[in-house]
Structure formats: C-alpha cells, structure tokens
Amino acid sequence: MLSVARFKIEDRSMEPTLKPGDYVIVNKLPYFFGKPSKGDIIVFKHPKIKNKFLVKRIIRVASNKYFVIGDNKTQSTDSRRFGPIAKDLIVGKMFIRIKK
C-alpha cells in the first residue's frame, strides 16, 4: 500500500488556499497512527457519491465525526450539506501543494 496519493483540484471550493488545476499530495499515514485535528486539510470520499473525492478543511471534531468546510464557503459543498463525516472516509492529510 502506498502511503501517499495525488489529487487534482477541480473546483473553487478551497480558494484562495487551493485553486483549480493545483495538485495536492496527501499522506495516508498520519491518521493511521493518530486522529485528524481541527485545521487539517484533508481528502476524503464523498459520503453520498461513489468514486468522488473532496478536499476540505476540518473545522470541528466531535466524537469521531469531522465537520468539514471549504475555505470558499460560497462555492463549497461540504458538511453544511451532507453532515459530518466519519474517519473511515478520510483518505489522508494534505502535506504538499503543487501550484498550477
């Protein structure tokens, strides 16, 4: 199993932090050994759409549920729409951004 994965930013939901066309490299290991924290930028499986991944920031942690929101709140589909996410949906924590 690879401990890193690459994802392309397709929408404007994380602007200004991440822009469409940017790539993020996520590390899968931090959450294997520890818990996600408020402020982490994560990639996770969409809780309602199969084979879709989202990139958001954790803004609240409550009993193994994670409330995630995009930095560009007016352009983001996030926990305000689909609710908090479970840890098992999280792919990994962003650790490198590659600008477009």
Descriptive notes:
This protein has 100 residues and is mainly beta. The chain has one domain (4-98): Umud Fragment, subunit A. The chain contains two helices and seven strands; from the N terminus they run E-E-H-E-E-E-H-E-E. The protein has helices spanning 30-33, 79-82; strands at residues 4-8, 23-27, 41-45, 53-62, 65-69, 85-86, 90-98. A seven-stranded antiparallel beta sheet has the order 1-2-7-3-4-5-6. A hairpin with a 7-residue loop joins strand 3 (41-45) and strand 4 (53-62). The N and C termini lie far apart (28 Å). 25% of the residues are buried. The model has no long low-confidence stretch (mean pLDDT 94).
Brief digest:
This protein has helices spanning about 30-35, 80; strands spanning about 5-10, 25, 40-45, 55-60, 65-70, 85, 90-100. The chain is mainly beta. The chain has a single domain (about 5-100), classed as Umud Fragment, subunit A (Ribbon).
